[in-house]
């Protein structure tokens, strides 16, 4: 038995090698114009928020260059970053910036922004299909000071709606989540006087909160609880057919969560020298204020030049042709200016 | 059945000489000892590595603060796990209150009442129930049970609202994701385990004891009460402990239905959390001290399971001495 298994493993290894060699030989012929394409395997892990977009991009890229096997494991930003620090992945996806205790050494990485997406505030209130929420009211609702739907602060912003006296149930994330980080960061920035719960991937929610697993779990709670309100990414809100509220932005306009609103927020955001940027509560009349960025961390030094070439090629694809896949997966593509900066950073970090 | 009988010395079989058989015996002994020690080694290594990794969290809060603190706020690096400990104990206790009587009932029905043919089917069904993955229980609970049962909870809360005491435990709530739902799921998951073992335990009751009870004019219930239950007490506690272990350690099903609040409430219709569930929920995005604290919760859960098992053993020993004393 043991011998048999060993023989099988040997066979597989030999087969893979042979396949790899053959693939190396064939790589250049298919895309004559663009020079040699990379081959091999790229392993990445990290944020689950952009997983749908990355998965679509990986699938599409397999047709462009079938010799480069890219895999992205949606383990969550925290795990992605610590695996990056331990050298277990070739690039990491993360929704949050690198902190001191993440296990990633300063100077060993470069942020590459990829896409962004609006986080919707979805609710379940039969008879109310349009709702406008000023920033302070939103902070009051999620901070637990506004507890019924007919609260005067909600009524004042929605004079046309008939608001029932249903109790408000908050639908939040039970898992630590970059979506929670971005949502709480927005509340912290937008309404510092009302919002006192801080920001982070887990929040001490008030007593009327019910937590669900991932975006789908929160969407499920909103669906089956009358009077519920929660934060869900646009893709899951759309898929679950949730009703979304318009949120007041920095310019005082009420904006519905759309990809156009998210792109407008990216346009209004200030980009830092390390390419991190903050589109939350960004300026601009059309900007949707709760727009979450997501990044890829690439290494400043790769031990294996093949891996470096592979990462460069795939990330470059994400920033160029791959951007066309963003909208159909409910993500907002980067504005041209930021995209060019990202490509430039990629080229200078991983030299040819 | 034969477990209690003293084994007879095996008949002498010639295996090719005294020396060879002795060598075989020694080899067997070494192999089995190694297997036995593996369990200890694995357990010990788990304890050591998790304690080491969880240490910074214990250090930050102090051992007592970590266990008794009621505030869990990873943002502020505050890690008090009492709400989760409370959730684990409350849900497991309620699950046991439901599961133990039901399981004993099923086991008695199978061994004493059911017709031989029905017995076979029931046993198969119970064993099948034990093989259903816990995530399936969780999903069924959240997609099917929760939407239906929420109004029932509210109805019950309204019903008991005039009763002092009860109205604090069963108070208004706007969600079906709560301690009770988690406890119900845990009960259903523990029932097959407790039932199978209880059935085996009942089967070890000597037929002569039962016949003796009947001969003294006992009804069937009196026979169960007088002959079966006293004889099986220790085994039933053991069965319940295995069920309890399952309930305390269950992760995914609970994580889905308990509502994930890190506060605690006497109102069983409010959402809460358990130790196992919070590890699964928060692990993915955690880093630094938060991650250490989650590992430390694992150590705490391990310690509490050991303590409960130890207490159960004490209970069994005492009860057995008492019962045997009364009977002999």
From TrEMBL, chain A:
Belongs to the PstS family. SUPFAM superfamilies: Periplasmic binding protein-like II. InterPro entries: ABC_phos-bd_PstS, PBP_domain, Phosphate-bind_PstS. The lineage of its organism: Bacteria, Bacillati, Actinomycetota, Actinomycetes, Glycomycetales. Residues 38-321 form the PBP domain. The keyword Transport applies. This is Phosphate-binding protein. Keywords: Phosphate transport, Transport. It comes from Glycomyces niveus.
UniProtKB/TrEMBL annotation, chain B:
InterPro entries: MetI-like, MetI-like_sf, Phosphate_PstC, Phosphate_Transport_Permease. Keywords: Cell membrane, Membrane, Phosphate transport, Transmembrane, Transmembrane helix, Transport. The chain crosses the membrane at residues 30-52, 84-110, 122-149, 179-198, 293-316. Part of the binding-protein-dependent transport system for phosphate; probably responsible for the translocation of the substrate across the membrane. Belongs to the binding-protein-dependent transport system permease family. CysTW subfamily. PANTHER family: PHOSPHATE TRANSPORT SYSTEM PERMEASE PROTEIN PST, PHOSPHATE TRANSPORT SYSTEM PERMEASE PROTEIN PSTC. This is Phosphate transport system permease protein. It comes from Glycomyces niveus. The lineage of its organism: Bacteria, Bacillati, Actinomycetota, Actinomycetes, Glycomycetales. The gene is pstC.
